[in-house]
Amino acid sequence: MKYLIETFGCQMNECDSLVLAGILEQNGWQKSGNLDEADLVLINTCCVRQSAENRILGHIGSLKRLKKFKPQMIIAVCGCLTQKEGAEELFRTKYCHVDLLLGTFSQGLIAEYAEQIRQSRQKIFDTEERYDDNDLCRLYHSLPSNLSSYKAQISIIYGCNNFCSYCIVPYVRGKERSREPQLIIDEIKQLAQRGCVEIELLGQNVNSYGHDLNGWSFAKLLKEVAKIDGIERIRYMTSHPRDFTDELLEVIAAEKKICKHFHLPVQSGCDRILKLMNRGYTAEKYLLLLDDIRKASPKCAITSDLIVGFPGESERDFQATLDFLQTAKLDAAYTFLYSVRTGTPAAIMADQVEESTKKARLNRLMELQNPLSLAANQNMVGNIELILIDGPSKNNPDFFCGRTDNNKLVNFPKTNFQAGQFATMQICDAKTWNLLAKPINS
Ligand code: SF4
């Protein structure tokens, strides 16, 4: 029997899809490369923004035709969309060709449910919120046996307790659940034995790791991961600025293997909006954190996410964000238009901002940030950096690309380097989104 997983959304979904693939393979399923030969199609969904949701629902709708020609094929939907209010009703009525609705708490049951459907041809919809042994985070080891790459991602914590007022995640992913540290460490050791040199630890808020475990913190986990032979670089995503402890700062600064790239979503530079967003810090507090990080790790890069057009954001509030960006001097900022998510407090706030205003503000934000990103990159010209090579550049066949420790994208003329090798290079030029380098030895 063959399966195909189609993944939408963030890196955590990518990571979940690997776990799901591992569970299926442990139960005798084989990976398929195309829809026509798959006996099970699993769509791993995202609902963080309305545009993503629309695209995914359109795709699921388009499978109806295929199901007509292949009635035995199991169509399954998992991920955040399954857990949204009204999802069961929607998939029972409008998308009745879907056989399995696998909620985010039930993903560990994928193989069991697929087998039951194969035998009985009855639909299964399981979106129950549960915190028991079927929860994906308590399973493992489920890495697909053929997964061997020089880079890998591992989920360390599921769910989120923060309830930022614009965000659907706590409603669809549930309360924070840290994975057992020994499972994480064993898994990374396995990956290192298969040739992995860079590991990225994932969670909605990795800084919360260990709050629900005895005697563990994210800082302690990082220290343990750094002891694993073969792992040369450790990254992590995403950090909540409010939960960035002094202990964490010290561990990151002291441990060479932990990359000096800090991605700290600020979301707004205006205190009034930050309060409405329920972010738990002020712009000033965030800026003080940046000072501490830069003092502890002077060669670091700091990037952030910003939401434009949050309900009630006035021109004055937006100007506060522009002023904040001037001061913060971020290496890059990823900017998003506020997207209404039904069921969140922000969705029913007064003064929703017009789409045209949001788009105009987004452009102004990028016009301000792009030269700041360029200046940050120009500061690196002349540096000697260790680059982890990713292989040929996507945009220029004569170039290869890789990443610095602080996560800058580096392009360099094609050589006989292989993906996964480290090479020492000198940075010779800078653009807004990448650096140019020349190898000085390998
Ligand atoms: S920290 Fe806030 S934005 Fe991030 S997942 Fe949790 S609720 Fe959403």
For this entry, give a set of tags.
single chain; 442 residues; Rossmann fold; Transcription Regulator spoIIAA; 4 domains; 6-stranded parallel β-sheet; 5-stranded mixed beta barrel; globular
Question: What's the domain count?
Answer: 4
Ligands and ions found? iron/sulfur cluster
The number of E-state strands comes to 19
Mean pLDDT: 93
Oligomer: single chain
CATH topology of the largest domain: Rossmann fold
Instruction: Supply the CATH architecture of the largest domain.
Output: 3-Layer(aba) Sandwich
Beta-strand fraction estimate: 15-25%
Describe this structure in words.
By secondary structure, the chain is of the alpha/beta class. It folds into four domains: 2-126, Rossmann fold (3-Layer(aba) Sandwich); 148-259, Transcription Regulator spoIIAA (2-Layer Sandwich); 262-379, Transcription Regulator spoIIAA (2-Layer Sandwich); 384-441, Nucleic acid-binding proteins (OB fold (Dihydrolipoamide Acetyltransferase, E2P)). The chain has twelve helices and 19 strands. It has helices at residues 11-26, 50-69, 87-93, 110-120, 169-173, 181-193, 218-226, 246-254, 271-277, 283-296, 315-328, 355-378, and strands at 2-7, 30-31, 40-45, 74-79, 100-102, 124-126, 151-155, 157-158, 177-178, 198-202, 233-237, 261-263, 301-308, 332-337, 384-392, 399-403, 409-413, 422-430, 435-441. The strands form five sheets. Strands 2-1-3-4-5-6 form a six-stranded parallel beta sheet, with helices on both faces. A five-stranded mixed β-barrel has the order 15-16-17-19-18. α11 links the parallel β13 and β14 (332-337). α7 (218-226) runs parallel beside α8 and α11 packs parallel to α12. Bound molecules: iron/sulfur cluster. Iron/sulfur cluster is lined by residues 160, 162-164, 167, 169-170, 204-205, 240.
